[in-house]
Amino acid sequence: MTAEELRQGAGFDEPRGRLPFKVFRAFADLTLRAHGDVFLANNMLDSLATLIPPRSREGGLLLSQRAAASWYLGDNELALERYRQLTRLGKALGELELVARGLDGVAAVRMSAGNLPEAERQIRRALRYAGKSLPRASGQTTLRLAIIHATRGDFDAALDHAWRAYQLVERFERDRRAVLVNIAQILYDAGHPDASRAAATHLLRLPLVHQELFAVLGTHARSSAAVGDTRGADWSVAQVLRLAQQPSFPQYVADALLECSFALDELGRPEKANRCRARAQELAVRHGYHDIAYLAEHAIPRGKPRTRPRSSPATLAIVTEVQALDPGKLTLAEIHAG
Amino acid sequence: MRGKPAAKGQASRGSTDRRILGCVPDLRTRQRLEVALRGHAPIEWHDTFADVRAVLERERRLCTVLVGMRDAKGDTAAAFAVSVRELGRGTAIVACCDLNGTGLPVSELAVAGVHDVLFTGLNDDGHSARMIIFGACLGGAGDVVMSSLTPLIPAAMLRFVDLAARRPRELRRVGEVADALGVSRQTLGRWCRVHKFIGPEELLMWVRLMLVAALLEATDQTLESIAYEMQYGSPTALRNRIREYAELKATDLRQGGLGLMLDAFRRRVDLVRRQWPTVTASTRPARAR
After folding, report:
1. What pLDDT score was predicted for residue B124?
2. Is B20 strand, coil or helix?
């Protein structure tokens, strides 16, 4: 854990005020998101709950972490109630950050259940509470709105929101990486594999945590295959398969394997693609990720990379900016040499 | 010279009503633990984990075991904890760790099923050691209660029951359990209503009474000491609760107490479900005459 990560605090805390348990919460957050050890992180957070007064700002921040942990554990009902309680607590204490994070959490749970209209409604409420004074909460929530638009196929709006989120969290290295991971995926789905690959290659130069790595490698494999970079796609697939040997974050692993299977299909290796897809389906069924299981079973790729869309001028400007992140002078082998 | 007589409600604190076994090779740690428990409970020392396990296999009562990181043979506390958990008797295990030792395997101990940890020189003497050891004993009773109660409780309320059974000394009111769980009181009530189940206040009381029944059945602790430990207002208050909810006497609970309490709980849950919503979750059981 770097000093910068400790300073920025856990789970997208706003960088203000001194909180006595900030370091411990940041460590629990690292255990959850970077190492993928959700059970251990959940126990750490439960222990912290006995020490931090529940009706305080830090108690609220801890509650949002506990809600996230229960969501990662698959207990959506408890996660939803904890986020609702966080919203109530925020209102009682007059802490807008807690209210915004509570509403954003409710939206996340609604999204995972497929209720996009309700999620969007909660996100817009969260954005009203977050305003301009809470950049991390606003960035996180705006990114969620971008994902909703992308899921609906409205890629212009999705990129617009994602880019706005990127600008909001410019000061926060970790958040910026998280937003860029999503921008790379949206760009690919929107039919801009060059820009998507540039974003993914840029990300692969940065120190990524476990959770981000799978998403980036999956996107890199597909975008590389789409632009005809066979070596790049092969490298990404090999990395995913190597990393997937350790059990953690099954949702991300299943998603990355699915993406890799489509990349391999594009490269003309149907047998290996089928094996990856079968593994993705097996993981998705075992852990109840029905959307991934459905896509894997019917071999339906996300997005429409082959059809060049009619993008708005704003989208094209974003594409140009993202492409500039990676001038494409170095190959992946050169980037990772040594 | 005889000491000052104990106050009412604390009469058995100095008695040998708990069975505590120990396997700690370090003699100084042993001495500190003995001093901490002097007048409260004797410790029966063994050299190896295998000896302790042999005693536990024969023993039907709830025991607490104090273990060092390794025994005289070099076997580890984590492996011992796993083997004891397989026995399924609700044995509480407290590990004694040396903070100066290299690489404290605390997470390994937690995964293995150790209830609590005493750190040498930090919390292994006096009142703090007693709180941890007796708290672990309650944790063992909590394990027994949870294994019996789990099939009778709706999944949504299991989290509530689990917290109430594992932290009975701190979480005595529904609001406290709700805070610890991170939800509102109303949410707990709603979860109960959705499953046509008894209300959270009554459920909390049943869980606490089941802990009392498990302790009465499987230890020699008196009702007075249990009432004191679980922070009831008085032993009489606890007796009244047992009579009011389960229509039993404390002496009945000494023989097969948890089973009797579970039967009473089943009857109450069935009644609430049969007569829903006439007998609502907030209706308390009729006072026994």
Report:
1. 81
2. strand
Q: Given the structure tokens 């259940």, which residue do they identify?
A: A113
B183, A77: Cβ pair inside 8 Å? no
Selection from B287, B213, B225, B288 nearest residue B254 by Cα: B213
| Own/partner pairs, A205-211, CB within 8 angstroms, 24+ separation | A205/A335, A206/A177, A208/A177, A209/A33, A209/A34, A210/A33, A210/A34, A210/A35, A210/A36, A210/A243, A210/A248, A210/A249, A211/A33, A211/A34, A211/A36, A211/A249, A211/A252
On whether any CB of chain A is under 8 Å from the CB of B158, the answer is: no
Cβ contact A77–B110 (<8 Å): no
Question: Using the beta-carbon criterion (under 8 Å), do B170 and A66 form an inter-chain contact?
Answer: no
Q: Do A82 and B187 touch (CB under 8 A)?
A: no
Structure ipTM = 0.74
Which of B207 and B10 is assigned the larger pLDDT? Answer: B207
Kindly report whether the global pTM for this prediction surpasses the value 0.90. Answer: no
Distance from CA of A95 to the nearest CA of B (A): 17
Q: Is there a cis peptide before residue B277, judged by omega within 30 degrees of 0? A: yes
Does the structure show a pLDDT above 70 at B5? no
Could you tell me which residues are beta bridge partners of residue B92?
A: B64
**Chain A residue closest to B190 (CA)?**
A81
Give the mean pLDDT of chain B: 85
Name the residue facing B182 among A40, A63, A77 (closest C-beta). A63
Q: What are phi and psi of B63, to 5 degrees?
A: -120, 160
| Alpha helix positions (H), chain A | 3-8, 22-33, 38-49, 57-72, 76-93, 96-112, 116-130, 135-152, 155-168, 173-189, 193-204, 210-226, 230-243, 250-266, 270-287, 290-297, 313-323, 332-335
* Nearest-CB residue to A82 (from B107, B110, B182): B182
B170 interface with A at CB cutoff 8 Å? yes
Average pLDDT over residues B271-278: 82
Structure tokens at A118: 């309700």
